[in-house]
Amino acid sequence: MKKQQRHWYHYLWIWSIIYFSLGFVNILFAWLGLISFCLPLIFAIGGGNKLFCNRYCDRGQFLRVMGSQVGLSLRREMPEWMKGKAFRYGFMVFFFAMFFNIIYVSWLVGSEIQGIQEAVTVLWTFQLPWNWTYSAGITPWVAQFAFGLYSLMLTSEIIAIVAMLIYKPRSWCVFCPMGTLTQTICKAKYMPTAK
Questions:
Q1: Using one digit for the tens of pLDDT, what is the confidence trace for 130-142?
Q2: pTM to 2 decimals?
């Protein structure tokens, strides 16, 4: 069997580990998660394709390595409802509602209406104290946004890993909110216009 040629982007999975490690040390590194929001949009809007998702996504590469190369995936088929439009678009709307909530809470902290929450919320429910990663003197809303973004990134990483363990390695990619959004952009970009 021919061995697959390795490219530099096959090692992007290391970025996932670096990102979560840095956020564990200093919460301000969580801002780097915006790269994962911006790059897929740049590729979709600029190139009209899902090249980022298919090749350059660090999470997709991480799931591929852990699921296929390390062999942690059970490789089961996902249920049809998880592949359907209702679930994918519903999850995307929910995900972005949580993202805009992070922005709103950061605004509340910046306006001094609410105090900063030095915690990471996992699965939108469980608050874990994370105060060692924040030091006084940092603009409170900047830190609050970082706590919120890290919470969102960690939650989605946990969901992605669980999907990888139970189903095929890159099952997360089927219902990834950024993937659904970029697919929608690509379809809209190439939709024939009425004359």
A1: 888 887 788 999 9
A2: 0.91
